[in-house]
Every structure is written in structure tokens, then in C-alpha cells.
Amino acid sequence: MKGNETFYSIPWEDLPPTHYVDNRIFCDQKIFDIEQRTIFSKVWKFVCCESELAGTNDFRTTTVAGVPLLIVRGPDAKIRAMVNSCSHRGVKLVEEPAGNARKFECLFHRWTYDARGRCIDIPREEGYACVKIDKAQCGLKQVRCESTRGLVFVNLDDDAAPLEDYLAGCLSVFDDVFGQVELEVLHFHEQVLDTDWKHWQETNMELYHEYLHVLNRKTGMIDPAYFNRAWHAFENGHMAVDPLIIQYEKMQGSASREEQTLPGLKPNEIRILDIFPDVMLNCRASVLRIDTQIPLAAGKTLVQFRGLGVKGEPEQMRRQRIRDHAEFWGPFGRNLPEDALATERQKETMGKASKYSLMAREENRLTQDDFPVREFYRQWERLTGLRAASASMLPE
Amino acid sequence: MVQTHAIPPVRITEAPLSTEPLEAIRRVIERGCQLLDAENYFEWLATCADDLEYSIRAYSPEIRNEVTWLEKDHKGLEVLFKQLPMHESYKGQFRRILGWTGSAGHDPAKRIFAVESSLCVYHTDLHGASVLYCTAKYRDNFRFESGVPVMCSRMVLMDTRRLPFGSHIPI
Q1: pTM value?
Q2: Which one of A12, A251, A331, B117 is most buried, counting C-beta atoms within 10 A?
Q3: Domain range B19-158, CATH class
Q4: ipTM
Q5: Is A318's CB within 8 Å of B65's CB?
Q6: B80–chain A nearest CA distance, Å
Q7: Per the CB < 8 Å rule, is B71 touching A192?
Q8: Claim to verify: residue A211 and residue A308 sit in the same structural domain
Q9: Are A156 and A186 found together in one domain?
Q10: What residues in A contact B161, CB-CB < 8 Å?
């Protein structure tokens, strides 16, 4: 506007298209639908831990790409995933988030399924004789399900490569932990965030945002080694950063976690792995946090937060681990509410007041380089066929 | 399952708490809500015992176990309140609405009176929009010091498991 001073003059058109994104990717429902179809319906999606299905006939429910799923440990100890929808007329079979059941009965017409998903009863089944339909054809649709290191993944794509191919070795980052002890979930909570799923995943990837957290500034960023950690890219968009020793005692009220550091880690070590598209494993010495998301709409996501500790450990150690988890990552923790606040405050301006987001930090792929988010969007582009910098179709 | 209760359950006796102590305790709980609403955190802490144990818990049907969302002693709360200004927080006003308060038992040997109260907490943002933040129960243990009820433990038992937003502030 004539006569006004201009302080905003980022030269977007001069930047490489890998170094910024068009903010419409965070608020356009058509783009969200493309993501559901090309990403969440095609990748291996973490859904729960094996410890949540410890017993025979234990089940969990979840949703992937809008499809409600039932995950069950059958009487043969195998974990299966199936569509949580009655084959008759689509009633959602199980509403509970978890439980134990030998069979699942639809409330509507009482069609019944066993823990493997086979249809075991149709009232007055003879009524379908005219079209030759019987129980054997009416089981629950099975969904690809594989586990590794106590983590359960599903894939809606029947033709997808095996899980280990998809993970491309990224979980080796935590093999010295997984290989030493059996972990189990000691914490679970969920929150619907008024933000796009990609914004939450960005926060879990880019460490520049640690300026947001007073605890991180005072216990991590004070160490010069903090800024010299290398990022490592795996195939399929997964990323890990070199670990760091945190100085918890530098913040009043915070204490060293040396005694309860998980086996395989150095005392007070923090270690982070991001699994494309929506999972983060973050280990703060004594407790492992796993985030996973159920995107609900453009600009709205349900985040599931898990904390893991050692199975069968003494009560006192467990209590300390729970306190350590709550200190940073509980709903009343020091860090988690701040992450949610920042990402939710992004939403209002997306695609309107704020047209682009800068991802241009280059620091030799060290700690606060935007390399992980750039790599994230390269994988996003490969799967969606869209260009992140223009929210449009990639040229052929 | 590993038990994680920090506060042992109060032994229930035959005789319920009589009206007078219960009313006195209720007034202290109300005053506590007033102080917390007004963000007078240190003043609220001063009404509590020096050996206060505070926690916020919920039962998670997802993992079929209790989860702890916050656990602090008196000193830990003092440090938290001192550090609150250093944190980024959702702005606005919490309003605690206390429902019923009932006796949950009396341990004459330890002179502890246990009460439970129902609670709704609302939050009004900077633009004046109010939402129900959570419903919960307070499970409090009190003892009388010089005739005045002093809270020596509080367990906030959350009904709400999906909060509208996280907070650094005790419920």
C-alpha cells in the first residue's frame, strides 16, 4: 500500500520450493482427503502397543483413515486387525476403547463374530438361502497387521510391502532399549487439537521450537553439544537425531533421572525418532513417549499420547517413572500444553493471514536445521502427488 | 497390575463424619476453590499442610489402569507456582463449581477425615467464551490443627479424560 512502510518482504519466489510450504496444505479439506487416500490408507500405521493386548481376547479400537478398526489378540495369541463394522449393515460393532471379549455381537440384529473376526451366528440365517449367503462369507474384513518390538502396526493396503521394509531400519535407533527390557504402557491420554496433524508432527520433528519450553532452554540448550547433533534420514521419510544428555538438575524442582534411566541409554539421555507420517518416539531417560495421531479434518487432529516403562518393575521405580512422564508430558506437564498452545495458534492464520511457512534453516543437518521437516514434505509430496510449496499437483 | 496409589485409602469406621466437622471442612474446600480461581496459589498452599500430597489422576479404560497426570508434594507445588510465569499458557479464567461434599471416612487413630466433593471447572477465554473444562471429584484428607481443618492430601479424580487444552495449574 502506498505510503506504508514495508517490514514484511520475505522473498518467497526466490527461495527453493523445498524451503517453504503453502499454508493451504494445513486447512484445505480436499488436500486432507487426498492425504487420507494416499498416505493414511497406504502406510503402516502404529495403532497400539502389544502390552495393551496382553491377554487372550483383549481388544483395542481405533480409527485409521476414517475406517474404525478392532485389534484383537485371538485365542491363538495372534494379534489381528479387522474393520469394526458389522458385515450386515455397517453398524459399528464395538464402541469401547478396550476390553476383553470372546465374541462381538452386533446390537442391531445380533450377528455375532468371534475373536478372529469369523461370523459365528446370524439369527434365522435361512432367510438368506435364496441368495446363497451364509456365515462363512460374512466375517469381518481383515486388515494387514504386524508387530515389531512390541509395537502394533496396521495397513489398509493389502498390497503394501511388509512392515520391516516400510520402517527401513529406523527402529534400530531404539534397539538397545527394546532389546534389553520388555516395555509396557503406563500412561495413556488423548487430546483433540485444533491444529492440522502435520503441524503436530512438525513440532515433534523440528527442534528449533525448543525455545518455547523453559525446561528445554534451561536443561538442554545450555549445553553446546545440543547444537551439534546430526539428523539422520531413513527411507520412507523417517528421521532420527543424535542423542543428548539432559541436565535436569539445572532447573529448580527437576532432578536427575540417572537412577531410573532405561536400560540401553546413557544416564539422562534423550533420544528421538520420527516415523512417517505421524509417529514420534521420544525417550527422556526414564520413560518412552509415543505420539500417534488420528487426523479428523483439515486443521483438527486427535493425538494419542502413550508413556512406556519397564514391564514388571518394582512399584517404587514405576511410580518415579510415572512422575517423570507427568512432569513433562502429562496433560498438566510442563511441555505438552505449550506445544499444543503454539500449534493451535497457528491454525487461525493458515492460508489467510499467513500464506507460507518458512522451512529454510540450514545448519549442516545439525540440531535446529529444518532438514527433518523438508524431508517430511518430500515424502509427503511423493505420496500425495502434490507440491507442498504451492498446494498444487506436482508436474508430471 | 502395579499399584500406583500414593495415598493409602482411609479406614472407614462405623460412625460417619458428624455435621460440624464436615461443614468446617467444606468451608475450607470452598475457600480453596476461591483462591485457586483468583490464582492466589501461594495463599492456597498456605492453607494446606506442610506434608501435603497432591495428585491428579484418571482411570484409563484404554490401558485398563489408573494414570497419574500430576503428582507433587508441598515443596513441588511451591516450585511449580514460582515457575508458572516462565511458561506459555492458555489465557483466561478458570471457575471451579463445587457440588456435593460428603464424608468418605474417618481414621481416628491418625485423626484423618476423608471427604469427597464433586467438581465442575469452567474456563472462559480472553474473548468471553466459556467451556466446560472438566468434571472431577476431589478426594481430600483433612486433619484438624488447633481446631482448623487443614488439607494434608488431595487426589483429583478426573471424569474428563479429553481436556480442551492442557494446563500447568492444579485443578
Answers
A1: 0.94
A2: A331
A3: alpha beta
A4: 0.93
A5: no
A6: 8
A7: no
A8: yes
A9: no
A10: 189-190
